[in-house]
């Protein structure tokens, strides 16, 4: 019964996705993973350098010890130039693994961005335009030995015989090392009252790298186009709203996330801030139009140089009948290292 339950779940997942191997992993707390969201967000922070770590665990309640897991780590350094402009450098790595056969995606990118002040000054709204690019390498792999096929099923024992031949003509267990190029733009404005707005767009895998493990096939990694918008709207001296929207298109797959966090801050020198919010994710389901996929509940703590976030995805799609609405758990951790000298705020804190 448990096997049938798991197979039914996997069938639903495959039916609701298209070419999973050619689509990127993503985070529900996308705003807490800026290096993966948009290359132009490299260096968009207050401080000398920033380190970000993200972790996502999906469908653990159903897949037991083989859930979908994603790990990401990045580091950025920024430096002021003439005329209140900035340049920034970054490095980031991501590892993603899915399913029994441990289908893995690994990548590492070096990034550069230039932040140009468009207008602003003393007691004026600061407007910046940031342009960024990333270049790196990736590789996908799969463990064929963890899979079994109908020819390996022993009717006598009712168990698969892994020593029997599968009759399948497999290719390599991994793709060749491929190059990968991303680029993006972002405009943001920091208001006098502490509020801010931002609008950005990015293109990932612009060179469409080949990711086939079979010599006879030439599958490519779809280009991913994305746009994001958001800000912080102060309601009082201690409360503010942080709405946001993200839209992504990669091959036949479409997804949008939108929602809002509420932020409370004591506005003290030893600042403590709390965030809580809810976000809804919509996506396409083959040719059946756009459907709600998950509702994400978020809680975050900011303490001086640190920001920690935790979230949980409640499944609201047809998969809810299989996983009892238990989706994904996610953690984010960000550290901001201050500049050697204090300066006025010139960047949003997403």
Largest sheet: 14 strands, antiparallel, barrel
Fourth-tier CATH superfamily name: monomeric porin ompg
Low-confidence stretches: 1-21
* Whole-number total of structural domains: 1
Report the oligomer.
single chain
How many individual β-strands? Answer: 16
Strand order of the largest sheet: 1-2-3-4-5-8-9-10-11-12-13-14-15-16
Please provide the ordered H/E string of secondary-structure elements: HHEHEEEEEEEEEEEEEEHE
CATH architecture: Beta Barrel
Helix content: under 10%
Counting DSSP H or I runs of 4 or more residues, the number of helices is 4
SS-based structural class? Answer: mainly beta
CATH topology: Porin
Any idea what the shape is? globular
Rg for CA atoms = 22 Å
Distance between the ends: 45 Å
Q: Into which percentage range does the β-strand content fall? A: over 45%
Level-1 CATH class name: Mainly Beta
Output mean pLDDT: 86
